[in-house]
Specification:
With 303 residues, the protein is an alpha/beta fold. Helix content is 33%, strand content 24%. It has ten helices and 14 strands. The longest helix has 18 residues, at 186-203. Bound molecules: adenosine-5'-triphosphate and magnesium ion (MG).
Length: 303
């Protein structure tokens, strides 16, 4: 089997925000995830980890209905995603590719409002509600001071706050944040994590937060969803970040070292997620780069 779900039977029977049952995701001829099942509950902050190409982005797109599951069933708040498709207002999504925003001269407020006006999902939202919703979202992420400034003049961390404001429009119950830490320095990374955590608690949302490095997320996350080799492991850090589980997900021998509260995932003496993270800094996004470290074998065979 290709699923390692450490959640207890009790968790599975609780009201679930996101449930995958025997889901297989394929892109072209490639199987990205095979027969994956897990369930995420209300108010959980889930760190989504895994090497480049493991399927973090593909999973989020599948939850949105943008990638159709080849097999199995994906449910958001009990509803199959296929039925709601792109217009699911219960989900806020921050996509991974956002380099173009650095050259965008739109003002912060207009950028957030663009999404409220329906550009986010092609979903019409009543005009009267739009303005109040935009104000509320800007307020939540403490970005009112950014509202009148063009995106091109903002720092990466400030743009990230506006992107998060966009995600919060329409009061979603599930946030899918794809690599919000990429190209931010450690200080801004901490700021983004704290902001997401605060807003999540205030609004009572479930968050899937993908990242290349585990350590910055350690204090924030409730559980880890680790993807690799076509499989997924969901559980506490102690359950998932272990040599046997990660060796299986990477398809290579992995060592896990804990030093002063930090966790180092090593392959052949090289720290994996740190190297991946630097990698993210160089290129920012996309899949067109070379893999320098163990990554899932093509086709996602069971380990
Ligand atoms: N249209 C496509 N056809 C075939 N394979 C694809 C297609 N698009 C993406 N892939 C592959 O799917 C795999 C999963 O990609 P995905 O973007 O979900 O990974 P990821 O975990 O988000 O990686 P990263 O950490 O680099 O963001 C990659 O190996 C990628 O090359
Ligand atoms: Mg990705």
């Amino acid at each position: 089997m290709s699923v390692m779900d450490f959640s207890s039977a009790a968790t599975a029977t609780q009201a679930s925000v996101l449930t995958l049952s025997h889901v297989t995701l394929a892109l072209g001829a490639r199987t990205i995830l095979r027969d994956v099942s897990f369930s995420v509950g209300p108010n959980e902050f889930i760190g989504v980890l895994g090497p480049n190409g493991a399927g973090k982005t593909t999973l989020m797109r599948a939850v949105l209905g943008l990638v159709k599951a080849a097999q199995g069933d994906i449910r958001v708040l009990g509803e199959p995603v296929a039925r709601k498709g792109r217009g699911n207002p219960s989900i806020g999504y921050m996509p991974q590719t956002r380099s173009a925003l650095a050259h965008c001269h739109v003002r912060g407020r207009d950028f957030v409002a663009m999404a409220a006006d329906g550009h986010r999902w092609g979903l019409p939202i009543a005009r009267g509600r739009t303005r109040a919703d935009v104000d509320r979202a800007l307020e939540l992420v403490d970005a009112r001071a950014l509202a009148s400034r063009p995106l091109s003049e903002l720092s990466g961390g400030e743009r990230q706050r506006l992107l998060l404001a966009q995600c919060l429009l329409g009061q979603p119950e599930l946030l899918l944040l794809d690599e919000p830490l990429i190209s931010l320095d450690p200080n801004h990374q901490r700021g983004v994590i704290e902001l997401v955590r605060r807003v999540q608690r205030e609004l009572g949302m479930t968050v899937l937060f993908s990242a290349h490095e585990l350590n910055p997320l350690l204090d924030a996350l409730d559980r880890v969803l680790y993807l690799g080799n076509g499989a997924a492991a969901l559980g506490s850090v102690d359950e998932v970040i272990t040599a046997p589980v990660l060796s299986r997900l990477y398809g290579a021998p992995i060592d896990v070292m804990r030093v002063h509260g930090r966790i180092f995932v090593m392959s052949g003496g090289v720290e994996i997620d740190k190297a991946d993270h630097e990698h993210g800094h160089e290129h920012g996004h996309g899949h067109e780069h070379e893999h320098k470290h163990p990554h899932p074998r093509d086709g996602g065979q069971d380990a």
